[in-house]
Amino acid sequence: MHIHILGICGTFMGGIAVLAKAAGHRVTGCDANVYPPMSTQLEAQGIELIEGFDPAQTSLAPDIYVIGNVVTRGNPLMEAILNQGLPYISGPQWLAENVLQGKWVLAVAGTHGKTTTASMLAWVLEYAGLAPGFLIGGVPENFGVSARLPQTPPQDTKSVSPFFVIEADEYDTAFFDKRSKFVHYRPRTAVLNNLEFDHADIFEDLAAIEKQFHHLVRTVPQQGLVVANQQQSLDRVIARGCWSGLERIDSAQGWQVQHVDSQGRFDVLFNGERQGNVSWALLGEHNRTNALAVIAAARHVGVAPCIAIEALSAFKNVKRRMEVKGVVNDVTVYDDFAHHPTAIATTVAGLRAKVGNARILAVLEPRSNTMKLGVMKDALPDSLRDADAVFCYANQLGWDAAAALAPIQHKAHTFEDLQTLVEAVVASAKPGDHVLVMSNGGFGGVHQKLLQALQV
Predict the structure, then answer these.
(1) What is the pTM assigned to this prediction?
(2) pLDDT digit string, tens, across residues 189-209
(3) Is 28 annotated as a binding residue?
(4) How far is Cα 360 from Cα 371, in angstroms, rounded to an integer?
(5) Comparing 79-83, 176-180, 368-372, which segment has the lowest mean pLDDT?
(6) Is 420 annotated as a binding residue?
(7) Is 116 annotated as a binding residue?
(8) Which of 96, 125, 249, 450 could form a disulfide with 229 if both were Cys (CB 3.0 to 4.6 A apart)?
(9) Higher pLDDT, 320 or 67
(10) CA distances (Å), 123 to each of 221, 225, 389, 426, in order?
(11) 178 is in an annotated binding site
(12) What cofactor is this protein dependent on (predicted)?
């Protein structure tokens, strides 16, 4: 079968492309913006990429068009597909029907931490010899790809693994299906990491997102398991009804962290009983919470907590999660996907815990749909409180970034021009500094621009 994917360079749709190619389909795709790591991953897989949405692409005559949620009415290729009555389907529905059907799906949902937690979970199952398939909105360093089909376990060469780990996004499915993506996945094991207001472009308020999360809970079978953090918004979701097993994180009647040391190591408790000690390089309370959820979810498929804990000690994190891009003249440049104020605060705090009193220069691009709408702008100053200096790229924002950052105006700077921002960061940087770049996009290749400019 030939499938043509519209919006192929998004992390989710790019993952679908990899899975489809591995399943033996011919895969082509198009997008308006092409940048690493997804573009390089797709090219390495031999998937043909076309820039833009020219209606002439219908001449490819694929068997079906798989539509990403970046595609809207008015998109010239989509209009041609509709006008010609050509077959199309959403990415989540294609995935559910062609990959997830009959699998033991482990879905990781939450406003923050989905990618890291799903990566941890996939790695724990891999380490335990379960050879899972996965689709993750990033590239886990332990695997080097964002998606793969279930593999043949080393201890059972006659069958393919039944397990599939998926990052379960609450964003809408497609312009013609406004349900959250994750309602398509029908998990047997569901992790609910946390829940805050986000995606202001599609959700009116927090209650609307809570409703979608409960739709996910409704799909978990009686013999399944919901692993949920102890949080008011998730409490409200669970209170609406839960018909499966339920294990809570940060609860005396569930999973807890204890005895955190200065290196980030910690003990894991379940129902008050010690399960072992996690020793790893990741820092921050959020990552410890993520680890608890992973251990709980892995236990549901038969992985003993002691094995999961051992696996986490070998976890290498995800690209674009506090990823060091380079060090020039003793100035370290990091790349991180943080874009919501809570994630920004957590990321900066995590780096602060790592570098102590060294200076942190936060370089921010508020480019998510929610941030562009200005819904979260008032929370930005507090989210950046642990940074020593802030450089905000305010190009085409639609709101006054300087005014929003006024409470920290003594250390905040805004820029409409990317090159001017780069020059300002380099002028400010001193040996021993840490430049933390945060964006959910390519940010105009700012990381490499900074590294090159620092060499002068």
Answers:
(1) 0.77
(2) 999 998 887 766 777 888 999
(3) no
(4) 22
(5) 368-372
(6) no
(7) yes
(8) 249
(9) 67
(10) 24, 20, 36, 38
(11) no
(12) Mg(2+)
